[in-house]
Design a protein that fits this description.
2 strands; mainly alpha; 97 residues; two-stranded antiparallel ribbon
Length: 97
């Protein structure tokens, strides 16, 4: 995903670097965590996937994925971009609705 101002706007940490047109940042912060977890749950249902499936797909721990569904826990920008690609949705929509 190319770096765009709308992606920057949803980050609380402006530690963004672009290499080859790909955004990378630390501490991707979803403004509305409850809405994010609801959107992610709906996307999982649409793909007939579980949270455990998502962890296996990303080759990460279940606790990492499960944390995205708890208040105050958010995925890194790297995972947010991977989620948006997997589910074919805009990262801004995933973050803010």
């Amino acid at each position: 995903m190319k770096c765009k101002a709308n992606v920057v706007a949803i980050l609380t940490t402006m530690a963004i670097s672009c290499s080859g047109g790909i955004c990378a940042a630390e501490n991707f912060s979803v403004m509305d965590n409850k809405g994010f977890s609801e959107r992610l749950s709906e996307l999982l249902k649409e793909k007939n996937m579980t949270r455990a499936d998502l962890a296996r797909f990303f080759n990460t721990s279940q606790s990492t994925v499960f944390s995205w569904f708890r208040q105050g826990y958010k995925p890194s920008l790297d995972y947010a971009l991977k989620l948006s690609t997997l589910f074919n949705v805009n990262v801004e929509w995933l973050a803010t609705g």
